[in-house]
Design a protein that fits this description.
The structure holds 2 protein chains of 2 kinds. Helix content of chain A is 71%, strand content 0%. Chain A is elongated and about 75 Å long. Chain A contains 10 helices and no strands. The relative contact order of chain A is 0.16. Chain A is mostly helical. Chain B folds into 2 domains: 1-74, no CATH class; 92-205 and 241-311, MetI-like fold (Orthogonal Bundle), CATH 1.10.3720. Chain B has 13 helices and no strands. The longest helix of chain B has 39 residues, at 223-261. The two termini of chain B are 15 Å apart. The model of chain B has no long low-confidence stretch (mean pLDDT 80). The chains are: A mainly alpha, B mainly alpha. The interface between A and B is large, with 43 and 51 residues. Chain A: This is ABC transporter permease. Chain A: It comes from Streptomyces olivochromogenes.
Chain lengths: 297, 318
């Protein structure tokens, strides 16, 4: 307890002050602002899709199948005569909805487990590390496919499957960040006061690793979007005729020489969303000084 | 140093053991009866009973597990529920085809990305860096099936240089598959390289700012010599792990790309066996992938040790 005799540390900033500072540094990073703006536009489009297009994304119209871009259909139509633009605009709903839910569950679970591992240490940490290594050793797409075939497709199952696949990686990152906080005096003091692990986690550790968790969220979200679209492409994700980007590429790939826009439009939508998420993650980590590489992402 | 290696190998074996248990549990303890799952809801009770007999489902799970592992250690993974052939030989046939893609991918991705990463790192914040960083950001942001589709559009539709799909079965010879290997390998290499480039760039920047590089420069060494002799080994160290992780990622990445090109590799087998609920094949593929992952990580650890003398004497901290 000799550390308690040294000079008192600076009083911790209050939560609003900290948030204000985080916001200021965030605005100074061009990459983060651009990335968040792109993601924001995608969210807006997904929410406002019914106002932006008068076409029904799942209505077949065989008399207008496989049209090129024109006045009536800006991005043309697919083999069933569905308006490609409408499907792309509505497609963000599935991608964003499932991805955000899956990322939230994954990061929340990973954060709690990672902090707990750092705080408890000992055999709990060791055993957890081993088990997570073992989970990581199985390719994520295979693990995902097994879960989905076992429990059937559906948004809830996909959220669960993504959590199974990505929680171990989040745990690793968060555990690394939390390990830097655990030796601090205020954690020791909280332990000496006899506070429960949960309360230490919530009040002492979490506020100090919020930046790491936020960056992890943005980074993980980009992976999740990619994984979910791959799953849809392979036919295990969104069920036809749901408008979904991965599914659209799978459906229109065979007709790529006839109506290239039907494949390119969802590709562009998907790529811009992920570029936005990646830019946000990069910008945030630079602005807040979160070194993702050192934390073994 | 020997004890360090021994500890790493022991940890790797422990991870493998746990993975095998997890794989077995995940596949066998799927909700519902495995036999009904395999045969579907409308199967006759006789057929279900026959399959239960064949899979010896009435025995306790741990007994089946030990049987499975004992068989797997001898290369016997049971028989496929769909084709009725031995899983071991079937998987190895597909695996060989995928290894062809993987080899070319790793070759392309690693050499290309290290060269680009070093370039970006050396020309930090100038136009080569901006160009390389932007391209790698885009490469990271598009899924493999998109890269594959775009490549097909460019190099088999617009310019008919490579076949868009493979028409051969899994027993095709290397000569038959060779023309079809390049596009899938390129698609995977683009995605894989994007990650390695970023890592290599960061570590080159770190190393170039270090004191020993400054010393080397002050000695009057040429930039080329400073980079190849001093910066490269230091920069390779963190990059090695990313490469290892990416090689392990290939095991899953091929699943998507092989399906785009109809390439008869392990990824295609993985997908069809999941669709057909061919449990022995799924288990075998998962276990083999776990072995690849563990071996890659072990190799990266030992490689890092060879490159960094400090690690040889350090304790077990990671």
């Amino acid at each position: 307890m000799t550390t308690l005799d040294t000079a008192p540390p600076a009083p911790p900033a209050t939560a609003p002050a900290r948030a204000a500072r985080a916001w200021r540094t965030l605005r100074s990073s061009r990459a983060a602002v651009i990335g968040l703006a792109i993601v924001g536009v995608h969210v807006l489009i997904a929410v406002l899709a019914p106002l932006l297009t008068s076409y029904d994304p799942i209505a077949n119209d065989s008399s207008h199948a496989l049209l090129g871009p024109g006045w009536d259909h800006w991005a043309g139509t697919d083999q069933y005569g569905r308006d490609v633009l409408a499907r792309v605009l509505y497609g963000g709903r599935y991608a964003l909805g499932v991805s955000v839910a899956a990322t939230l569950v994954t990061v929340a679970l990973g954060t709690v487990v990672g902090c707990a591992a750092a705080l408890r240490g000992g055999w709990f940490d060791d055993v957890l590390g081993r088990v997570l290594d073992a989970v990581l050793a199985v390719p994520s797409i295979l693990a995902l496919l097994v879960v989905v075939t076992a429990l059937g497709t559906g948004p809830a199952v996909i959220v669960l499957a993504i959590a199974v696949v990505y929680v171990p990686q989040v745990v690793r990152v968060v555990r690394g960040a939390a390990l830097a906080v655990v030796p601090a005096d205020y954690v020791t003091a909280a332990r000496a006061r006899g506070e429960s692990t949960w309360s230490i986690l919530r009040r002492e550790v979490l506020p100090n690793i919020t930046d790491v968790v936020c960056v992890e969220f943005a980074m993980r979200a980009s992976w999740v979007v990619l994984l979910i679209s791959s799953l849809s492409f392979l036919g295990f994700g969104a069920d036809p005729p749901t408008p979904d980007w991965g599914l659209m590429v799978a459906e229109n790939r065979t007709a790529i020489t006839v109506v290239p826009m039907a494949s390119l439009a969802p590709i562009i939508a998907l790529a811009t969303l992920v570029v936005g998420l990646n830019l946000a993650a990069d910008g945030l980590s630079k602005a807040w000084g979160v070194d993702r590489i050192r934390e073994g992402s | 140093m020997v004890s360090f290696i021994a500890r790493r190998v022991a940890a790797a074996l422990g991870t493998l053991f746990l993975s095998s248990v997890l794989v077995f549990l995940a596949v066998q303890a799927l909700p519902g009866d495995v036999a009904t799952q395999v045969l579907g809801k409308d199967a006759t009770p006789d057929a279900v009973a026959a399959l239960r007999e064949k899979l010896s489902l009435d025995r306790p799970a741990w007994e089946r597990y030990t049987d499975w592992v004992r068989g797997a250690l001898h290369g016997d993974f049971g028989t496929s529920l769909v084709s009725g052939k031995a899983v071991g030989s079937e998987v190895s046939m597909y695996l060989g085809n995928s290894a062809l893609i993987a080899l070319i991918t790793v070759l392309f991705a690693v050499t290309g990305s290290i060269v680009l990463g070093i370039l970006a790192g050396l020309y930090r914040d100038r136009w080569p860096d901006h160009l390389i960083s932007t391209v790698s950001l885009v490469g990271m942001s598009v899924p493999e099936f998109v890269v594959a589709t775009v490549l097909v559009l460019c190099f088999s539709v617009a310019l008919p240089w490579f076949p868009a799909v493979v028409l051969y079965g899994p027993d095709a010879s290397v000569g038959q598959l060779l023309p079809a290997v390049w596009l899938p390998a390129l698609a995977l290499a683009v995605v894989m390289a994007a990650y390695i480039v970023r890592m290599a760039r960061t570590s080159v920047i770190d190393v170039m700012a270090s004191e020993y590089v400054t010393t080397a420069r002050l000695k009057g060494l040429s930039t080329w010599r400073v980079v190849t002799r001093h910066a490269l080994p230091g920069a390779m160290l963190p990059t090695l792990h990313v490469i290892a992780l990416n090689v392990a990622w290939l095991a899953g990445g091929v699943a998507v790309v092989e399906n785009v090109f109809n390439y008869p590799g392990i990824g295609k087998l993985m997908l069809s066996s999941v669709q057909n609920r061919d449990l022995p094949v799924i288990q075998a593929i998962a276990l083999i992938s776990a072995v690849v992952y563990v071996v890659c990580n072990l190799a990266a650890d030992l490689g890092a040790m060879a490159l960094n003398p400090k690690l040889r004497t350090r304790g077990r901290t990671r």
